[in-house]
Task: structure prediction
Amino acid sequence: MNIILFGAPGSGKGTQADLIVESHGLKHVSTGDILRKAVRDGSDLGNQVESTLAAGELVSDSVMMDLIRRVISDISVEQGWLLDGFPRTEDQSKGLLTLLDELGETVDAAIDIFVDNDEIVRRLSGRLTCDECGRVGVAENNANNTCRNCKGSMRVRRDDKPETVLKRQKIFRARTRPAKDVLAQEYDVHRIDGVGTPTEVAQRIQSVLEQINQA
Ligand code: ADP
Ligand code: ZN
Result:
């Protein structure tokens, strides 16, 4: 099964992605995680994108297409993938559709997690991310901000600062909505209400996936 997950920064997309890949055995392709890891590793790709990420801007479509082609080609059809953070522009959507044609693959489900803007700004200003493994958590009063996963330190991600959050929302509205529209010409995009506990949202997604699998 191949799934595309859309959702604004702060919509809970990453959390839901983890839950879906776990229950369906899919390969999780988070372009944000891949790029941040490249920066941590100091690879050529990392050096190329570091300042773009810190500014909350988008990495160029050609760099992203090269990356996604390499990643998707390496995943077996039997396993399937979940794209989290890609496509994010109109041209990435077009590029993806062409790539899938080439590979003889299709998208089984496209899901859009919707959360309104005020809620998103509230959520992101309290979000912490582990420096080491990328785990995402919420700032708690007096909690020592140690990662439960790897004991690394949890910090506000460089691009989760309020001004950068607003910029990413703006970019999301301007660039990623059109990306979704391009995909919607080819596939149904299912809109899911992203307000609720992670379990509640996961159940909404699961019922859409079941409907699709039965159809
Ligand atoms: P968010 O929390 O904004 O959803 P991600 O972890 O998905 O963040 O992405 C973090 C950053 O990585 C983005 O702000 C952007 O700089 C870069 N990035 C990730 N995916 C893409 C993409 N498909 N196209 C361009 N840039 C991307
Ligand atoms: Zn960690």
